[in-house]
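Researcher: I'd like a structural prediction for the single chain below. Treat it as a standalone chain; there are no partners to consider.
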Amino acid sequence: HLPQGPRPVVQLHPEARILVAGQAPGRRVHESGVPFDDPSGDRLRDWLGLGREQFYDPTVLAILPMGFCYPGTGTSGDLPPRPECAPAWREELLQHLSAVQLTLVIGRYALDWHLGAGSRTVTDVVRSWRDHWPDVLPLPHPSPRNQRWMKKNPWFEEEVLPALRERVAELL
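Model: Treating it as a single chain, here is the predicted structure.
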């Protein structure tokens, strides 16, 4: 099922105060074994106002994607996370993250799992961020491919990112 074999990429510690709930590792992350070790991670760290040292401190930030392994490439990017991964492991691992005070829910698959987004668009769910604040924050994927989304939704940078950076600073 996994074109390059299993190589789970997660970052967990029971003291983590922030949880990043993303989709699945990309090819570069699969190769390095380091979560968000790619341009998406650069953008996410910028959104959070964190340097690499804080971002990769597991007592600060846990990273638990919907799929733990790189699912392979499809026609328009990476394939979806493997469907058996989250049901098999997610709830059990989340129980060990009792110190989490902010969950960042990134992308369609995580939005569906954590917020029951259903047929709502990612934009609609992210736009309703205050409905979940300050414990949960839905985010678009930080991929550089989402530059068009960022330009079409300037409210995200104007409203959401300052609130996010302030909340992260509170939790450090």
